[in-house]
Amino acid sequence: MAPSNAPLHTDVLVIGAGIIGAACAHRLAQDGLTVRVVDGRLGGATQSGMGHLVAMDSSPAELALSAASLDTWRHWGARMNDADPACAYTGCGTMWLAANDRDMAEAERKQARLRDHGIDATLLGAQQLANAEPALRTGLAGALHVPGDGLVYAPSAARWLLAHAPPGLSFEAAEVCNIDTQGAVLADGTRRDAGAIVLAAGWAATRLCDDLPLQPKKGHLAITDRYPTGMRHQLVELGYMASTQQRQGAAVAFNVQPRPTGQLLIGSSRQSGQSTSAVDPMVLSRMLKRAMEFLPGLSGMNILRTWTGIRAATPDGLPLIGRHPTRPTLWLAVGHEGLGVTTAPATATLLAALIQGTAPPLAAAPFAPSRSFNKVAP
């Protein structure tokens, strides 16, 4: 990565150095463009999220974006860990847990959707699940095992993407105050200009572009001390899918990850319309209680830290990837909600193709910022 004294006019200016901005900058530099990344280091969803890499299938477009991204993550993973073990990439896979027969029926439907897209997924009965993850409570109906999913520590992964790009990429730690047709104005009054501006700043993007169809969704997380739990997979209840689509109030769902440190990372919650960082004790309590319903052993573990993060969500649950509808030099890569880490690679590939006018690797229309939002994605 070039030093911050690189030329002030580049082919592309990327605003935001989280996982989405870093992936976009990395790809554009790979394509031979000069790229400058500007970020105020104020924190964002990349710093506070779970870092799951999971094939999500709430809609065909979401599945296409996540599946294409997972292929790239598997290619990146070993290289990341070799260069920086803090990236903590692991192909642990996901167990989608079925509490009852109704959930098992949904697991079968999910398996069919994934397999139709070429993604391996295996149904497990109650005893097979108990053998695979004995820390889970008894009485679960079974699970859907998706072995190709994984985990990564997203802040380190974003840094790796910036550090291991071609020489045409530079980074500057600075806050952007305004964007216009030529580029951006920084907090110190100086300019950084480019032929194309990519806005990839998550929820903070609404401060720079006030017509984005985004709303905040606050989430809580907790992490335990180190314990010999023996957990090998990311564990998620099948009801998680419904919780991601709730548009009002607070929703919680069971999602626990075994971290390479021996700790357990506990999620998840969503509070629509909430953009404050304060921990909500009632929501946190509900989330932890839900987790203990699936993992009773959590009740005897120490929680070392709790925190929140803000996801930027669109009305239909799909991100905005492409040219701004009325600002021809402004390109958007925002609104990924809780799936930004997973979908960063394919977001970057799609956006790079659109900027350069080449054939996109997947259908771009479902993510177009100019699309109608009359319907919520199924």
Automatic annotation (TrEMBL):
InterPro entries tied to this protein: FAD-dep_OxRdtase, FAD/NAD-bd_sf
FAD dependent oxidoreductase domain ranges (all copies): 11-354
GO cellular component, one term: cytoplasm
KW rRNA-binding (keyword) present: no
Gene Ontology molecular function: oxidoreductase activity
Protein name: D-amino acid oxidase
Keywords annotated in UniProt: Oxidoreductase
Top-level taxon in the UniProt lineage: Bacteria
